[in-house]
Amino acid sequence: MHTSVLLIELGAVILGLGLLGAVSVRFSISPIPLYLLAGLAFGAGGLWPLSASEEFFSTGAEIGVVLLLFSLGLEYNADELAAGLRTSGGGGLIDLLLNAAPGVAAALILGWGPVAAVALGGITYVTSSGITSKVMGDLGWLGNREAPTVLSLLVMEDLTMAVYLPILTALLAGVGLLGGLGALAIAIATVAAILYLALRHGRIVQRFVASPNDEVLLLKVLGLTILVAGVAEELQVSAAVGAFLVGIALSGPLAHAARSLLTPLRDLFAAVFFVFFGLRTNPADLPPVLGAAAVLALAGIVTKFATGWVAAARAGASRTSRARAGAALLPRGEFNIVIAGLAVTAGVQPRLGPLAAAYVLILAVAGPLLARTAEPLARRLARRRSGTSPPVAGLPG
Amino acid sequence: MDVERVPLPGIGLKHVLATARGRRVGVVSHHNGRRDLIVYRRDDIESAADTVALSVEEANTLAELLGAARVVERLAELHRQVEGLVSVQVPIADGSPFDGRSLGDTRARTRTGASIVAVVRGREVIASPRPDFVFGAGDVVVAIGTAEGTATVSDILTGTG
């Protein structure tokens, strides 16, 4: 009886996600907000609460985070990260300060305390590198002048996450300031050690994992990733960061093979992760935080746009390119939910989860839409500025 | 001609070149083998006017088309530059004495003064083949020299000389 209910629920949810995915492809939007909405519908207080499959979704969500971060790490190789640190450290710092500020301020104003402030700062800060690179690819922006600037900022953010997540994990565990500093030291040491291993001795890892057989390669890579993630979690460095670093350590043809093998698994479990976050959020908790989420989203749009604009200006790009850089960085998505998920699990503040869900729902949808309008708008403004625009009826010049 | 090379972290590499006529063309090489062909706007050199995504196979075909055209163009140019210089294209037929033998064996240059400058094999152009290059049936040999010299090369390769 239990098995049949479990299978029926799982099948129905995954099929539903497939249909939502088709909608997202049809309208060329990110599926993340749709998955969150599906989770809200199936969760406690939703339209059709699930009964038997909570446990699967809970475990699946953990694996989803690990695979999300692993495949993010696969996208980068260690050289790119080192180069990114050298060239865009300044822009990265502006990015962090400008965009964490609204979250930190909001949490403090709402009286949620310092730990929630650190979590909410992370939630408002980080751009969804997944959505942003997809938007840039879809709009044909990868060849543009601002593309290297935007992509370097994403690298910096992901590296920042590798340091931020362990600190947050430690703070959420209630270790206090001293413990937090200890966790930071361990995290930086671990990240540095793995980056060193990947840069200097990447071949050893590659040789250990490499196999001509797809099945063997899949199991080795998946096993290694989850194992390292677990050990990292045990050391309070956070499972996500462990998986990210394994992804970085793999490069070249092996990374390519691992990516094509693990992408289907990642897609499945990442969807499970977003659904699970929605499951844990009671839709009735959303309306009270909608106002705060809208204000935060507006602030997030302004600060991110300014970040992209300034970074592109520092690189000497034109106004049109600056506008595109600002707009490309707007979407929030997977990382923000990862951070919120950690905070919700620790039970810091009951309204943090719904607020993060609403924030991501708004910006995952609005970000790509705003990006689409950025270029035409910037061109119209540029024409008006230079005074060459054809006179509009009834308006002078 | 300068080719600008810009790394795109997480995506791959971008190469951009400016043509003599002032247009800019670029290629984004993704880690996964995909190539984007980019044509920049005339009025804004920082922005792409159009981007064409190419699969590995499509990119290779395009590269061959551009590359092969260049070899033909260079030959035509040589013709114009040097009066009295002739190029011939000699197919290696089945049963040709040089099917399976090397370029060095023809001793074309010492015997005729003409040079074998390229071999077209299928859709591939092998420019400046080395003496140890082995001909196969179906190859088309491109030789350059005087009218007399190239005619002799043609005779040697077809086995009539």
From TrEMBL, chain A:
Compartment list: Membrane
Record GO terms (molecular function): antiporter activity
Superkingdom field: Bacteria
Pfam family, one: Na_H_Exchanger
InterPro entries, A to Z: Cation/H_exchanger_TM, Na+/solute_symporter_sf
Keyword Cell inner membrane part of the UniProt annotation: no
Listed GO CC annotations: membrane
Phosphoprotein recorded as keyword: no
Listed transmembrane segments: 6-25, 32-50, 96-126, 163-196, 238-258, 289-312, 333-350, 356-374
Single GO BP term: proton transmembrane transport
Keywords: Membrane, Transmembrane, Transmembrane helix, Transport
UniProt domain Cation/H+ exchanger transmembrane: residue ranges: 20-369
Membrane topology, as annotated: Multi-pass membrane protein
Protein name from the UniProt record: Potassium transporter
Organism the protein comes from: Rugosimonospora africana
Similarity-based family: Belongs to the monovalent cation:proton antiporter 2 (CPA2) transporter (TC 2.A.37) family.
